[in-house]
Structure formats: C-alpha cells, structure tokens
Specification:
Blueprint (H helix, E strand, L loop, with lengths): L10 H10 L6 E2 L2 E2 H7 L1 H9 L17 H11 L4 H13 L11 H7 L17 H10 L21
Antiparallel strand pairs: 1-2
Length: 160
Amino acid sequence: IPESTRAWLSEMQWAQLKSLEQIPAFKSSTGALTQNLEQDSLGWKRWFAEERAEAADLPRGCRELSTFHRLFLLRVLRPDRLGAALTQFVTDHMGSDFVEQPPFDMAQTYEESTFVTPIFFVLFPGTDPTPVIEAFARTLNITEANGRLSNISMGQGQEQ
C-alpha cells in the first residue's frame, strides 16, 4: 500500500482495489486503478472524504466508469454509501416502484386473507403492528375480548 494512502486506506481495501483491476472497466488509458490512485492520491482522498461519495465526481482517470462500476468502488472504499447508491441505481434503471415501499394497508391485507390464509407478520426488531391490527379489528367488532382475535407473538426459535 502506498505511503500517500496509508492514512485513509486500509490494506484490505488496497487488496480489494487490486482485485478490481481484473475487471476491464478498471483499466483505463491512464493506467490501472491502483496506479491512478497513487498518481492522484489527493483527488482520491477528497472523494473518499465526501459526505455523499456516491454522487461526487470521481478523480480523473475514473470519471468514465459506468454507474454500475462505481458501485464496485463504493463497495470497497465507502461501503457506508453503498445502500444509497444501490437505491439510486435501481431507481435510475428500473424505476422508483422498485425501491419505494407502498404504505401498509391493513384493510386490503384483511380482504386478501381467508380462514385458511391467515395474516402472518414477519417483523424487524423494534416494530410492532399490534396497535394497527387491534384498531382495524375493532372496526369489525373483532376483539380478543369477544374471542374473535388471537395475537400470537413468537420469539426467535419458536417458529416450529
């Protein structure tokens, strides 16, 4: 790893950059990716420090990289920005329908359920749909008190 990059680039990142050089897009007329990084370490350091690196111009010699190949660089150098870049990539190439979560509609979900197709929620830590479910159920006179609603909470490992 070159001395000019040691302060902000790890040996693991350097090795991953060397691996990227196996991909033709990372070999330009100005040389290989790591060679470019050595020659313009200040430009790369500036890009690396950008708050939104995924939207910032790459240093010279890599500006012609496609948005797809930029994702590779972000994965190696700024993995914290990869999620935002992937969201933008999917939006640009496939449309926003593929990244926007439609609002949850309990009434529609209920309409799609039957006595043989129950509603099953798989949750992330910190989420609790219980208030939404109970409020909707009350509009249909379905409550735990009248025996028409059962809320079964399963912790990890209780699926079976």
